[in-house]
């Protein structure tokens, strides 16, 4: 799949004793790395004093030994990984955000995107708030801190603040003595709770992070729920649950989440296999092999193979050593970046009719290059099957996508797309099928496929105006 | 699979015109990276002047933009990747080796290991040669250069020198105006020739490097063959072919080579599937799923599934962001490195009887950890199947393995191993089956499985003495 | 001299045309590097959009080619260097500070220290401001931005804000279209204006930065003055001038400033020579040579030599290659860090009676080590002369010094100090002499020598409380 | 002074006990850094096993903590710093050179340049030696090792080898159990011996390195002497002493050596002052101030001032933070690199008649820029005085200089040079005066001033041919 970026992954830990919570956060962030490769950060709260290290880059690049060990022990830590853009912004926008306040320091990590950040910010600025960035996360922090001035506790402040926020937000927050996890009432982004054998409570975007820190899954945070962990135990505030239609992002199952994660009770891997099964069931094409595009199409391809009876095959070798510093070939070198990164196995492909499965098509250009490489490897027929519906609309809830006009399915019919990407046939999953890949599929947000946005869209035009005016 | 290291990968290119041969070598080395991660190097021969850049690290680490672009254009280049050890040696031992001589400069890259390097070296030293390292490659270079003093051409010198070398050596050599490829008469290590549309001739350890530089496969270099490319064309000397029993390393098919490569006419991927099929055919165990250990067991697992009719499944998620700088968890952190790197998918595993396929067992410890993680994920039964015979003996031909006494199969029966790694049953491929995975399977070297070494073993005791005496 | 740290150096440039103002800022910061080695930063204002790059480290470390060139062209830039502490704070506290606001973005760089920052901050927080750091500079920015909401222009906002600030502050500020320079009414820290031949207006902490960017000196900014540069020219607001006693920090002449700078009309170099002359005139000791401690004592030593008639000599070689990464010798190595860094020239020292001149003594330990090294080099007598009065009190105006109780002169008489540092005699400059080293010497702040602080000291206890509570 | 490069600095240590000899070498190399900034290396001989770390860069860059600590303890270590060129060569040519041989490993560090390296190499190659580089040091190593085959001891081999070498060579050599120091019979380059209180014997290019490791000076190694240190004590072979005319490089006193060093019994600092005194004594010009060009002209300027009675002044501030990564200003920035690096102090210069002293003029361009900057700072007259004779000839003994035709004094009369560099008058030291700056001045090599080369010049043409043919 090409270039859809999840916004972020978040993690938090509360321990009964002072310990190396930074390292545990580090392992958790490693397992959430797929949710964001732009920047990484960890804050250790050591008895009310916040110690942060964050920078642009992968977890492994940001937290070299010296940096990780520069963080002290503590009882609370939160961590964050952020999606991949480039340039100076990465450093400025790295999370968690930490602020220093007479009512107590605060650190916060956010996954998602607000739809009312412009209004929030306008109001905050008019009453004296001063912003360093254009990020909506800064608005969340300011809203909470403002409420704190008139609240009895940080959890009360969070509760009041959350009611002012619209859109997608899974948050982990550290006050001087508490760890708080919040999931927006729509539940756009996942958030779960786990427990380690030594009693540490952890929160994470996905269950794979629980596995990484040796925690067992306790439960998902409910849409609208606020969970507070302190020395006096775990308290939950569910007042805001059920106030909105549940709307977990369907792309979490299709692409974003790691396939070993369980989200809102359902296995990501099985959901992906289910997508492949649905594609197979509504298909009549004859073929010799089913092949997935590594790595995003493999699970659905296996589901397709199982349901269709057509043999599953490994069709490509993906070069696992390609890194950030790869220097792309020039045209004059007559060698293709794609073949260096993803090479078809000719002995598998040659002379075969291929079912090629991927999770989505964004612009179509990468897809076409892959298909051409299969033709060069001798594929007789190529039938492309996409394990999601045609991707036509923008996302306002934390998925960073191109201008909708650049989405191939926004501009072309399926028949036209098949011609453009040069396949013999092309099928997509339907929205109806998508809503059946997990038992609670009716509660998925499918707005980017059917334009049925579960919230008002207030500031999206304004947003771009903002972004253009400052570049930190 | 645990820690078997291939020695190296080699590449060479001869162009009709002066061009950016360094970049093409860079892409080729990227695709050969699996053959060695310790160091990488490229020599560009620019009209007789050798320009080298080499250092320890991955291709992507050694050749950052400035370093790659510091190499000039030229008509000949050779490149090398070397296997993964640690420490100061990596830098010292990086190849290609370049020497400066009045008869002309010489650069050489070597994959394999000599069995008579101690004798060679003793003789060379007694006649005045001075060595910088203990590497057998330096002995090869010196032998060639000495022969050059009394030869009419570099190819004559290479021909004479090769007759003094015993053991495994696939070489690419650049003289001021020629590119020479040599494969030892046993053909222990692979070496192939390709051609780009613009007429450039390339040599590489594996065909996947041809794909990476947009070259089509011409043919394998024969065991014992010396191919010389110069402005006057391609000349071959086959005088030494058929002087020895062909002995391509069986582990090239089982593990080392990339599955999209074709070696000596046969697809690595299909050979691996064949291993799985053999395992299935001689098996009677009942199971729900066939799972491969990523990435080395996946092809054989698929072969097993196809032949047995038991469904193939993706049983693990491998974290693709774990890098060199990963900081391992301490025991006190109660979190497991393995689960961070390779996490079982509980929804797939839970309650199932599993056929688990991997390519080999070395010491058994990694294997046991993986099996335990499957048990924790709910596996009801685990039947391990290994797509190679029990690994019991040392290799003297370029595979860097532990002391044979540390090989689990050298010390234990299959039954004992099954108990140690805690599986319900364990089967290996037989040597007889191994010799049938490719049509010319009789010609494979299987010495590490059956101790039938195709050469005398002259200096292996001496060798270790050497290694201990100097550490550059 | 040992470890007195100046807080910062600032620079600003306003050009009539869009150009590479980042590079000019870079050269200016190079020449101001002696004022702060902890962090460096440059903001380019490109038509209202602020582009910042800042990090911990020296100018040369922060602004490697890629980073400097990542900044766009623009018409306004400001830059900052910050004094040298260690650790995580350096990154967090790097200046300039940039904020994003609906009334326009703002960047600000500050040299100095407020004495009412605690009150300011308390008031700002109680009305909703949220702070990221404990730095007083953040309070300055917030005060200006708050005033901006009710002001017609940024310069009006600055004028109102300045009236709320107490203490030391030389500021350069970039609004979307204006460059503003401010110097506090006491004029604690220097600030001057220059002009380049192409009409660019620049502000800098010292005139050496004007030389570095090819600008000629126009004039010093007056204590209390606010100078605004915009497309409509240069406007000045002197309403706040003469509202306070002028109090330029005496240490600027004694130590901080570069000796080629002219501050408030007087040459730093000549002021230092004058210190040496005063020391000589009130001295009767007989000696063979006058030697300065490199580099801070050299100018005064020359002044002493000229006034006394005792020959001036180069007594030490300072190793100019010692850098940040120097690994200090351990005791067991029996080698001395001092001799590696600063080695006496035995052929000069041996058998001589030495006048040794330095600018100050802080704790006395470095001083004693230097004196011992002279003894080992054969000095017969050592008479130490200090070109400032005994250093006894804290500074609240931007000089980062130890706890006064650790100052040797705060705890000991001159006689005792002479014994501790093991000299044959010791003399200091008197405060009266200090007030004569420049014509306007009466206007110098000499509070750290005579405890006559020119402002109330409001928050210094509170300050330390603050610093301890958070560590970003 | 502009761009004359010394070839190298060497160091060796022999300890009675196994200890951290690497760190002591590191401190010694720090103090020899002025002799070479291109590369640095240390070899620790740990009971016959050689452990080397070397790379391009300054000592502080090459030996970051991890690299220094990667070296084990041992009883012998040798170290080397090499002069500053750029590019790929730096890494390849870094010393010490280490070789592995059945007669025992060998490490060698060399300061100087052979004049018969071409003949040596030709002979060595014809008898089978194979060279990796074009460096003459490799020829020295090979000659010694060849002699070793037929010698009873390494010191005998060194003695025989030295007789085959012509030109300049100060060597430190580590055999498995001995440390050997050699100085060529002309004594072109300095080499001295010291002893630490714990009995460690050290050899170094200059005495400043003895100070750095806490050793006291024992004596200079005599021209032609071979000193061997082993467990059985210190043995010297003086057979080759007095076989050649002593010819210590005059530039060691004028420029290369550090002024706190004592070379062949005479203080470098005093020799430089003496140069200034001679200049003053033969001068009649009237002036107000004597100023040295930092740092190379300062000592002679002080000597001039003392002898003439004209006051000495500090005329420049040299920016001590300019490092390797400095990005030079472009012409369009209208700012001058020189003023950023070396700024005149206007308050000193303005209106004055200046005697400006430097150690030499190479091409004249830097000199002219400095003089122009003094004019801009208001100098009324500038009288340049050079503390060496006109520099007209090549050096074949280890000083890396431009083609003689690019030397301004090789092409122009003194009068013409004065016009070119725009001074009011110009005087040089005479060769006769130079020969009186130290008592044994008659024994100085002054060939680059008077073309009286103390050896035949055999291979200098050949040399350049060589250099051009290979570039590693």
TrEMBL record, chains A, B, C, D:
Mg(2+) binds at residues 296, 358-359. In the C-terminal section; belongs to the purine/pyrimidine phosphoribosyltransferase family. It comes from Floccifex porci. Binds 1 Mg(2+) ion per subunit. Catalyzes the formation of phosphoribosylamine from phosphoribosylpyrophosphate (PRPP) and glutamine. Its EC number is 2.4.2.14. The active site is at residue 8. NCBIfam families: purF (TIGR01134). GO terms for biological process: 'de novo' IMP biosynthetic process; purine nucleobase biosynthetic process. [4Fe-4S] cluster binds at residues 249, 395, 445, 448. The keyword Magnesium applies. It catalyses: 5-phospho-beta-D-ribosylamine + L-glutamate + diphosphate = 5-phospho-alpha-D-ribose 1-diphosphate + L-glutamine + H2O. This is Amidophosphoribosyltransferase.
């Amino acid at each position: 799949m090409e270039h859809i970026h999840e916004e972020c992954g978040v993690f938090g830990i509360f321990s009964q004793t002072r310990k190396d919570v930074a390292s545990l956060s580090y392992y958790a962030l490693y397992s959430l790395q797929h949710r964001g490769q732009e920047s990484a950060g960890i804050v250790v709260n050591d008895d009310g004093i916040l110690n942060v290290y964050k920078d642009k880059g992968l977890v492994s690049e940001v937290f070299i030994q010296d940096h990780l060990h520069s963080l002290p022990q503590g009882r609370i830590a939160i961590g964050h990984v952020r999606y991949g853009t480039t340039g100076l912004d990465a450093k400025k926008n790295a999370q968690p955000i930490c602020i220093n306040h007479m009512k107590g320091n605060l650190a916060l990590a956010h996954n998602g995107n607000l739809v009312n950040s412009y209004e929030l910010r306008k109001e905050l600025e008019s009453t004296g708030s001063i912003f360093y960035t254009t990020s909506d996360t800064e608005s969340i922090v300011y809203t909470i801190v403002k409420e704190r001035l008139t609240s009895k506790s940080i959890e009360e402040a969070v509760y009041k603040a959350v009611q002012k926020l619209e859109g997608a937000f899974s948050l982990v927050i550290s006050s001087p003595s508490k760890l708080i996890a919040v999931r927006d009432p729509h539940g756009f982004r996942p958030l779960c709770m786990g427990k380690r054998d030594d009693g540490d409570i952890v929160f994470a975007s996905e269950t794979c992070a629980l596995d990484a820190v040796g925690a067992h899954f306790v439960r998902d945070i409910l849409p609208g729920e606020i969970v507070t962990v302190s020395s006096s135990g775990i308290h939950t505030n569910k007042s805001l649950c059920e106030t909105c239609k549940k709307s977990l992002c369907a792309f979490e199952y299709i692409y974003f989440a790691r396939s070993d994660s369980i989200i809102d009770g359902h296995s990501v891997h099985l959901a992906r296999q289910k997508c492949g099964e649905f594609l197979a069931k509504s298909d009549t094409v004859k073929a010799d092999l089913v092949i997935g595009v590594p790595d995003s199409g493999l699970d659905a391809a296996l589901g397709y193979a199982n349901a269709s009876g057509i043999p599953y095959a490994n069709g490509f070798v993906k070069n696992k050593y390609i890194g950030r510093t790869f220097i792309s070939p020039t045209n004059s070198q007559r060698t293709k970046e794609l073949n260096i990164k993803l090479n078809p196995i000719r002995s598998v492909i040659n002379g075969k009719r291929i079912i090629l499965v991927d999770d989505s098509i964004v612009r179509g250009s990468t897809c076409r290059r892959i298909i051409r490489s299969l033709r060069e490897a001798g594929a007789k027929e190529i039938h492309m099957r996409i394990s999601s519906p045609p991707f036509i609309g923008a996302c306002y809830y934390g998925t960073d996508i191109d201008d909708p006009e650049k989405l191939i399915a926004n501009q072309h019919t399926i028949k036209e797309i098949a011609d453009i990407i040069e396949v013999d046939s092309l099928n997509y999953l339907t929205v109806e099928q998508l809503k059946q890949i997990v038992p609670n599929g009716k509660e998925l947000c499918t707005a980017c496929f059917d334009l049925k946005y579960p919230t008002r869209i207030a500031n999206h035009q304004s947003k771009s105006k903002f972004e253009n005016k400052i570049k930190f």
